[in-house]
Amino acid sequence: MSDEPESVSAAPGVTPALRGVTPDSLLHTGGSDHPSAEDLVLASGRDLTPKNLQWAERRLAQEGRSAIDKALP
């Protein structure tokens, strides 16, 4: 049993100071090359409302996949 909370994990070989930080090589924005308007709304932290879905559809039409990449850290 570990003294650390379950939500904190570290990859093998990672120094204790970096525990809980996801390495860049494991980060991704999703499994689809065609994100939906709902994906973009949720990635931007907004509520799923008709107005926000229309906003997301416009952004996806203008920017394509990069719109969701810009919304995520």
Structure description:
- The chain has about 70 residues and is mostly helical.
- It is about 35% helix and about 0% strand.
- It is built from three helices and no strands.
- The protein has helices spanning about 35-45, 50-65, 65-70.
- Helix 1 (about 35-45) packs across helix 2.
- The longest helix is centred in the last third of the chain and has 14 residues, at about 50-65.
- The chain is elongated and about 40 Å long.
- About 10% of the residues are buried.
Q: What is the 3D form?
A: elongated
Low-confidence stretches: 4-10
The oligomeric state is single chain
Output mean pLDDT: 76
Q: What percent of the residues sit in helical stretches (DSSP H or I)?
A: 25-40%
